[in-house]
Sequence to fold (215 residues):
Amino acid sequence: MQTIKLDKVVAMIPDGASLMIGGFMGVGTPERVIDELVRQGKRGLTVIANDNAIPGVGIGKLVTAGLVRKTIASHIGLNPETQKKMIDGSMQVELVPQGTLIERIRAGGVGLGGILTTTGVGTLVEEGKRKIEVDGAQYLLETPLRADFALVQAFLCDYLGNLTYVLTARNFNPLMAMAARTVIVEAEHVVPVGLIGPDQVLTPAPLVDYLIAHE
Fold:
């Protein structure tokens, strides 16, 4: 893991990159990274996340700034700007059931070729997807999701890069840290090695590439 300044690490993210962004309606989302993406004007982004938060919060800032080309999410209902852009065609929106979304991310992180789920069978969700029968039941094959970068927000990070999360922030961050080529972490607290107990480490240090320096 390398400790790096915020502006330098965001400069590494090119226009058109795919980003997994942790958080649940803004809780557990790395706000400093979001703000710097907006400041640097990174464009054409594909954002994979649970939701698009709300205008002025988290991913909602990227949407408002017109930086998102496509979002893959389970929920956009509280962001009217995403809805408007989806309807006028200026932003692609792929809606994925929440359980399916996180399982596709997990599959990407652990090297699976996909997952089988009954969610969506017999609905619009199954359009264009392969159906597989197992023991007489129909399943949809959902392909894994991976990204160029995972933008992760942790509660604690030690000097090696081991991470732990608190409450709702744990929902998506740990699995996203497994499913991206480069993992960038914004941590609330950086602590000495050993302060995070082994059984409290939710993202082990080898997965973390960059920790944003506190300034």
